[in-house]
Amino acid sequence: MRCIMKLHYLGTAAAEGWPALFCSCENCQRARKVKGKSYRSRPQALIDGNLMIDFGPDTFYHMMKYDLDFSKIQHVILTHSHTDHFYATDLILRAFPYAYYGDERKMTVYGNEKCHWMFLRTLEVEDDSQNMRDCVGFEEIRAFQPFQIPGYGITPLHAVHDPKEECLFYLIRDEEGKTLLFANDTGIFPEDTWEALAGVKLDCVSLDCTLGNDPNMECGHMGLKAVRSVVQRLRKMECIDKDTPVVLTHFSHNGNLLHEELETETKEDGFVIAYDGMLLEF
User: Fold this and answer.
1) In b/e form, how buried is each residue of 60-94, taking b as 16+ CB within 10 angstroms?
2) For strand 107-111 and strand 279-281, is the pairing parallel, antiparallel, or unpaired?
3) Phi (first) and psi of residue 122, to 5 degrees
4) 210 Cβ neighbours under 8 A, 6+ residues apart
5) Which of 49, 151, 236, 266 has the fewest CB atoms nearer than 10 Å to its CB?
6) CB 158 within 8 A of CB 197
7) pLDDT at residue 268, as a whole number
8) Using CA atoms, how far apart are residues 250 and 266, in angstroms rounded to an integer?
9) Is residue 161 within 8 Å of 80, Cβ to Cβ?
């Protein structure tokens, strides 16, 4: 029997959260009224409780909200340097005296050149711990250069997001061959990424849908129109079939649609609309 991969969505909003921190627009007011699954924190996910995707400013909140022990996390992969995805200052809290025994369970963060610079700046400017270098390390990675961590093979892929850095998303395969494509913070994939996906059979796809049903904002993120285009191409390439779970996440108030509205809008597509705390097994 093949193993099950567990994908836990801890946060499913874009940078501003939803309702946004300082916003009183109609969409934020509607979210404050209905609450529930339309209340969204900043993006973060866990695979099998072991591998963390992104390390944003809501990490502490996610630990408390879902009763998680992050002292056990030893591997974090970053998509890019924007602070909703990488809040480097909190890495200091893994070291003494903010935490004990962090040097026995050293955590490694994997990210691009800009993330590496932010990590080094944190060490130089902000670190007031006694042993952060013993508790947290950083490995700089590049698109299309696969690497291994215990239990997983990971291939970074090119994202279309911020032209000032090499933004990434990930193809993640466990030891049993179960394969996840996790694509936050990207527009429609660039051609080099499509080429890398040729011949890859995916068991689950998680896609950025920041822009919801807004047809006028397709730069560096996707909305429903772009998502449908990506899914169509993945099916044409036989990377996925009609039974492959396709999950949408990373929603902004600029995308207009609350959780139940997204479910209604995508009912015929068969998409899964992620919400904070959702656990998907495949």
Assistant:
1) ebbeeeeebebeebebbbbbbbbebbbbbeebbbb
2) unpaired
3) -60, -45
4) 14, 185, 221, 222, 223, 250, 251, 252, 254, 255
5) 236
6) no
7) 96
8) 16
9) yes
Q: Is 143:113 a contact under the CB 8 Å cutoff?
A: no
The domains of the chain, with CATH numbers, are 6-14+24-274 (3.60.15.10)
Query: CA 13, CA 26: separation in Å to the nearest integer?
Result: 17
Q: Side by side, which strands form the sheet with 204-208?
A: 147-149, 152-158, 168-174, 179-183, 204-208, 246-249, 272-273
Best CA proximity match to 99, nearest among 126, 124, 70:
70
The series of mean pLDDT values per 10 residues for the chain, 282 residues long, is 85 97 97 97 97 98 98 97 97 97 93 98 96 97 98 97 97 96 96 98 98 78 95 98 97 96 97 98 96
Token output for 217: 């904002």
Residue 101: both structure tokens together: 């025994």
Preceding amide of 97 cis, omega within 30: yes
With vertex at residue 64, the alpha carbon angle to CA 271 and CA 260, rounded to the nearest 5 degrees, is: 25
